Amino acid sequence: MSIEAIGPISAMTSVTATPRTNRVDFASLLSQGLENLQAMQTKADELSLQAATGRLTDVHDYIIAATEANLATQLTVAVRNKALDAFNEIMRMQA
Description:
By secondary structure, the protein is mainly α. It contains two helices and two strands; from the N terminus they run ββαα.
């Protein structure tokens, strides 16, 4: 069973469910998502360097990569904020 992420990361992310439980391993999903975010940012940085040195023939490639990296970063920050809010809400619950 394979589940693909939604959004700009979807083209690069594919998570496999564990055979015993048929559930997605959250740690794997999180790790792969962060690795994909880093890859997007690295690609945008490389294209930026090529654009600055004049080696980039199509500037729109850099614009697309930079926008994808920006959106993926915004998504990651939003997910982190929601996770922290949920954790804080759980901690406020009375036992």
